[in-house]
Amino acid sequence: MKSILFCRVSSKEQEETGYSLDAQEKLLSEYSEKKGFKTVKVFKVSESASGKMVRKLFMEMFSYANKNKISIICCEKIDRLTRNLKDASLVQDWIEEYKDEDREVHFLKESFILNTNTKAHENLVWDMKVAIARFYTNNLSEEVKKGQKEKISQGWLPTRPPLGYVTIGEKGHKTHIIDGGKGSFILEMFELYSSGNYSLSALSDVMYEKGLRNSAGKKVGRSRMHVLLTDPFYYGMIRWNNKVSQGKQKAIVNEDLFITVQNKISRKTKSPLYRKHLPVFKSKIACGECGGTIAWENQKGNWYGHCNHYKECEQTEWWRQEKTEEFLSPLFNDVAPKTKKVLSILEKAIKESHSNESEHHESTQKELNSQIEKSQHRIEAIYEDKIDGKITSDFYEKKFTEYTKDKENALKALQKLDEDNTKYYEAGYAIHELASKASEIYNSPKATTKDKRLLLSKIFSNLLIKDQEIKPEYTLAFEFLKEWTPVVNETFEPVNNGSTEGYKSTFYTSHPTVLPVLDKFRTVNWKKIKSELQFSGILDMFPSLALQN
């Protein structure tokens, strides 16, 4: 008689303690040979198989048995074959489907054979064993969920982390750290997409060329790229069962960059697909009348932009790319320090402003530490009151949640304060440096279309065109520069006196012209500006142009 062997393990621990698939197969093969059965097929279910995969294999086994007229299935124990009433019913139906074939299921360890001649008391044993197996599965599910909940409460993801992280530690004490080889790619992936210059497909191609690979060593596809870019794990959070909580893993990206990417990835206007001949202003300019995105077409080697009139619009002009670029020069100049001397003056202003900010930082830090200590004392006090029976459990839970939240908010604010303190000077000087080089970058013969598009994304949040004029909407950083730079340029512009070159005024932070703008300078959200720029200097941003300092 022909037989089928069914092997199954539920966990790695079972494999390590002698219940491996190979061990089961050997045991079942010896039993089948001893009984005079001819083994024609072995079905195996590993510990990593999902419920759907198990059910699929289960049905394949019965289908194979029916097709090849196999009447014997050998299995180690009942809970290896079935762990719920539905599967048990399938086994019973298979046995009773063709009673003349003498179908049987042999369970070695329990010395039990299920067939059409099984006695009533033996069927009772079968039902009880199935019920026990079902209880085992349900209980295991509860324990797993309980363990997952505890892991999350400790600030760790109870499963494999996303690309860019690796798991370390022993069982029960596993944590996640940044994969040094891939973490930098993940950061670059977020930065590139935040520029608005890449579609998911284009980003997938670019990151593959740069060296990013998935765990299998292959290209990260478009759909997977979308999953990665929307995973809050990368900025220090954990999403589990549609709930987001604070994690303890080190963030690869900051929250502002993550939010910027979410806004880009969910917007209706698609990021431009990669093309060999991509126009500079693709998806960069909108119609000033109807708000639609300007479309660009190549006519005899030249790019022309026009409104597609998806909405009611009277603009019929076509704009040549070179003519559009002429409008950019004055926009660059509006935010650019006129000379290196003015740039050095700005740097001095930033340093002095940062010195004042440091005093504010220290006082704020002291206040936040006081709040944290105060919340901790309150938590300890209500716990003592609960132990002494002075307050009810419900009141304790209410106040515990309240004080814990106050403490967490203060800790989060303290962490943000520390981050902002180091970014204040860096971001301030970086935007002035970029503004001073913007025109040079754009007009450089070495500048590629990619370089130009990247520059535009850092300076302008949007460009509107109407009646042969371009109206700019600057990013947060350059909106500030539009107000700040002209004041400094005018106040400290060079004065030619024939023989020497000087400046109209000597710089000092209390200068009546500069003081109002400098006050605003101190209140700017530099962390957000730093996130918008995502670079420490223009030489890092445009290395191929070899710009001079």
Structure description:
The strands form six sheets. A five-stranded mixed sheet has the order 2-1-3-4-5, sandwiched between helices. The chain has a three-stranded mixed sheet with strand order 10-14-15. The chain has a three-stranded antiparallel sheet with strand order 11-12-13. It starts with a strand and ends in an 8-residue tail after the last helix. It has four domains: 2-151, Resolvase, N-terminal catalytic domain (Rossmann fold, 3-Layer(aba) Sandwich); 154-274, Hect, E3 ligase catalytic domain fold; 278-326, no CATH class; 333-358 and 414-545, no CATH class. It is α/β, with parallel strands linked by helices and 549 residues long. The chain is elongated and about 105 Å long. 54% of the residues lie in helices and 14% in strands. A hairpin with a 6-residue loop joins strand 6 (165-168) and strand 7. Residues 497-509 have low confidence and may be disordered. It has helices at residues 12-19, 21-34, 51-67, 78-81, 85-97, 120-153, 180-194, 200-210, 222-229, 255-265, 321-326, 328-334, 340-387, 393-443, 449-459, 476-491, 515-523, 526-533, 538-541; strands at 2-8, 38-45, 72-75, 104-107, 112-114, 165-168, 175-178, 237-240, 243-246, 285-287, 295-299, 302-306, 319-320, 460-466, 469-474, 494-496, 501-503. The relative contact order is 0.06.
